[in-house]
Amino acid sequence: MQLTITQPDDWHLHLRDDDALAAVVAHSAERFARAIVMPNLQPPVTTTEMAAAYRLRILSALPTNTGFDPLMTLYMTDRLSSEEVIRAKQSGIVKGIKLYPAGATTNSDAGVTDIQKLYPVLETMQSESLPLLIHAEVTDSSVDIFDRERIFIDRYLVELSRTFPELPMVFEHVTTKDAVDFVKENPGRMAATITPQHLMYNRNAMLAGGIRPHYFCLPILKRGSHQQALIEAATSGDPRFFLGTDSAPHPQHAKECGCGCAGCYTANSAIELYAEIFDQAGALNKLEGFSSFFGADFYNLPRNTNTITLEKRSWIVPESYPFGNDRVVPLMAGHELQWQLIS
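User: That's the sequence. What structure does it adopt?
Assistant: Structure tokens below.
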């Protein structure tokens, strides 16, 4: 059995930099035509000039004869100005600005400490129609890690969407039924990305029978009931939900240690993982919209014209890949997948 669809895009991707970038970018370029590239480098990508330089490094690291187009983002800090927002929009290469609450995830220490102080900047983003991409978790140590997404909705997103109803917002990597319901009920210009790991697994995969660090990501995997809500949203054909892998490569030694870092590497088999999920849900006919149409429509970009073909045949995900001077272990390393990209 084969499945040919319009070439998809990845609307949430971490490519890292330097040797790490060179090690992983080909996996994304093989499957996706475009990708929204996250800005949480060290130092973070906070200006349009830095985004342009990073984009050139990505293009230089790509294999020859690829048309992969990295779509850049800026990292929102407390010091972001409206002038920089306008420069970003006018550049044509910056497609969004990423809001990380300070300390929420990898390399987010420079993130936002007080969202309300940035309301003038958000007003400019609204007038320029430059999307706000939100890592929606509170970071208070007193809040249970499994509740941080829900609390962020109540504490910040309700007010943000009410104050800026015309601002395009992407609720990144939603993980809960609360998030799904909020996006569905929101009257503004809000959409959401969903990762393969949050569709495939719940927290039992990470914790039952021992801690498995390669399932540890942020936002963290939740209960099975939340996983089911995500599957229903992704396979529903609702254009507010679309593909965003949040593929986040880390060296093996940084994952498999006493304090392992958060992130799942999925770029090596991303569209295959989604095909498996949609097939199991009896919704292969909805995969093309989710992966190839809805994100492009939200970002007001043309849909791709190339196609890819997947075949239903089993293969084993490699145990690891080279990653600079180390290795990166992909999600489902050593396990069998039923769908494979063939062209």
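The first strand starts at residue 2 and ends at 6.
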